[in-house]
Predict the 3D structure of the following.
Amino acid sequence: DAGVIQSPRHEVTEMGQEVTLRCKPISGHDYLFWYRQTMMRGLELLIYFNNNVPIDDSGMPEDRFSAKMPNASFSTLKIQPSEPRDSAVYFCASRTSGSYNEQFFGPGTRLTVL
Amino acid sequence: LAKTTQPISMDSYEGQEVNITCSHNNIATNDYITWYQQFPSQGPRFIIQGYKTKVTNEVASLFIPADRKSSTLSLPRVSLSDTAVYYCLVGPPGALNFGKGTSLLVTP
């Protein structure tokens, strides 16, 4: 099994540009999570989906952030416009309904906004 | 989600047993206790999960007292490769709040 796949692995962009991060969960997993990790704030939950439906987006920092899950095998996290304070590592994770809190994480996308 | 408190950092020598304790005084009835491990430049990895008493797997043991207001992750005979950040999470099946975890440094 390929595990959770994220792309790109690294992204460098300039302030004001739109950034799109992509995630492919493990096949058969019906929960998908987006996290952001920084030195200052640690690992924060941004949003999570169940069966492609957003369940809790209270962690999304502001309206510049949006996430979608058009089908069971793909999700995107978009930042528009990007700002330097958005620089972080963004992780995607997935799990099955029956695995309680055992999530499987992707390798992350390191985003740098100049 | 229940608030958790765990040490910011710990040091250990190779071969020793390491115990990391996490406090979670406001744990709810349907909350599970879950521990993750994160190596540099990688995503977190599930280690162990429990509801009460003791749970053991090939990697670690998890001790949970009867009142469930704390838990202890026990790593037997650590090696240099166990140097990582360890997160204690408490909550129902669903969203998890990782916070900053405990940074464990294992030295020769």
Q: What stands out?
A: The mean pLDDT of chain B is 93.
